[in-house]
Amino acid sequence: MSWIKVVGIGPGSSEDLTFRAAKALKDSDVVVGYTTYINLIKPLIEGKMVIVSGMRDEVERCRKALELAGKGLKVSLVSGGDPGVYGMAGLLLEVALKGGAQTEIEVIPGVSAVNSAAAILGAPLMQDFAVVSLSDHLVPWEVIEKRLSLAAQADFVIAIYNPGSSERPENLSRAWEILMRHKKPDTPVGIVRKASREGQSVAITRLDKLPEYNVDMSTIVVVGGESTFISGRWIITPRGYRV
Amino acid sequence: MSWIKVVGIGPGSSEDLTFRAAKALKDSDVVVGYTTYINLIKPLIEGKMVIVSGMRDEVERCRKALELAGKGLKVSLVSGGDPGVYGMAGLLLEVALKGGAQTEIEVIPGVSAVNSAAAILGAPLMQDFAVVSLSDHLVPWEVIEKRLSLAAQADFVIAIYNPGSSERPENLSRAWEILMRHKKPDTPVGIVRKASREGQSVAITRLDKLPEYNVDMSTIVVVGGESTFISGRWIITPRGYRV
After folding, report:
1. Is the alpha carbon torsion for B146, B218, A117, B35 positive or negative?
2. Of the candidates B69, B209, B97, B111, which has an alpha carbon nearest to the alpha carbon of residue A115?
3. What are the pLDDT digits (tens) for B4-15?
4. Where do the structural domains in chain A lie, given as residue ranges?
5. Which of B114, B134, B99 is nearest to A127 (CA)?
6. Rounded to an integer, what distance in angstroms lies between the CA atom of residue A173 and that of residue A39?
7. Which positions in chain B touch A15 (Cβ < 8 Å)?
8. Is B234 in contact with B121 (CB distance < 8 Å)?
9. Any B CB within 8 A of A98 CB
């Protein structure tokens, strides 16, 4: 029987995959994905039919996966991190529903980039947190601003995806101004680039100094809450236990 | 050399572990954890020294792990889901800092319960989202209310941990009233109990009907955003692509 599994491969190297994700790749006839992610899992898909596509071809990639499954193949659609967090899960389901596809679909969760970045920083997310993408390619900028502002007022720890884009270099500085309005200037900030991948880099700083750092689209910025503190190489938001 | 690894074992069965987590367990001399989680990974730790403790012994569990590492042992401190999301990472670091422990500590991320629940529901988190725990054991209830209210006003998809407690049965109904003030009554809601474990159950409903459902501490409730929709057994929040 044919199927499509949307496979979350985790943030980086193949050791961050779950056994379930690895099994799905192994059981599939064909693996479909964006170049970067396919390269990360190369050792696991040797000998498989692979269909690689570029960054902005997401809809086309889903159509292709559905077409192949329609021909009776078992298809893994690869997604970086967790497929449900700015990944391929939603889009595949939307394209499948629109086309009336009858294929069996399963979403296999993975370690999301935000959890990976948090682990590298120590434990910044230990209380309630919000996840916001600064990419206004698909969401109006005013909506993003409103979310940042209210999340900061609610004292959420805030994890920011897609903080730096060459097309929209001003987005992070506008986001920073909003955060500075509602969070203290010395709020701990962690900046993790290429979490758990080759070339990983980590910086720990405070909110008022964030503009001094370079960030790009493979960076996650974690902005602490009121109780978050820095100690050595760790950022910790206490859960509230008496220690 | 001794170390402590805080090992995220994912939401459920051992197939949800990453290879890195499994390797840490394999390499350790002793495994420390809460009964439920130890039972979930039993096949992976056969023959290991295991120290099991009850639910409210978190601080003691961390002290024990540090004491064992201080004696030169390699210690895995097991945490359900991701150790950085209401898990053991923060507490271990706090206890280690307080005691001036020199042990090498690493946090190994896992698939968090919220990502697992989302995968089961389809793709409800595809836009910005907030994660809130209703447990007021460690956080004042007023803070939780404020976070829920502002997150709902910001149109975040909201994932709720610890929605139902026998000690605090009123928390969910108070949270529900707040959400009803700012989200539409027909907002899609997914209720996942024991995500990815034996006895898993899933319900899909709308916000105004949430009080009709039983939830407990092993349930995650996902409340959609304005654009979230239900189709068959899926809840989808469109990312915004033109499909």
Report:
1. positive
2. B111
3. 999 999 998 789
4. 3-111, 114-236
5. B134
6. 32
7. 18-20, 23
8. yes
9. yes
Contact B124, B188 (CB under 8 A): yes
A173 token code pair: 């500085």
Question: What pLDDT sits at residue B185?
Answer: 98
Task: Quote the distance between the C-alpha of residue A76 and its chain's center.
Answer: 19
| pLDDT score, position B243 | 85
A139, containing H or E segment: none
* CATH ID of A3-111, from 3.40.50.300, 1.20.59.10, 3.40.1010.10, 2.60.40.10: 3.40.1010.10
Question: What is the C-alpha to C-alpha distance for residues A202 and A191, in angstroms, rounded to an integer?
Answer: 6
User: Which pair of tokens denotes residue A177?
Assistant: 């101004």
Alpha-carbon gap, residue A26 to A243, rounded angstroms: 45
Of B83, B85, B95, the CB nearest to A243: B95
Across the interface, of B58, B94, B144, the residue whose CB is closest to A238 is B94
Q: What are B41's two structure tokens?
A: 């990974």
CATH topology of domain B114-236: 3.30.950
Cα Rg of chain B, angstroms: 19
CA distance A209 to chain B (A): 24
**ipTM here:** 0.96
Distances (CA, A) of A54 to A6, A38, A163: 17, 11, 21
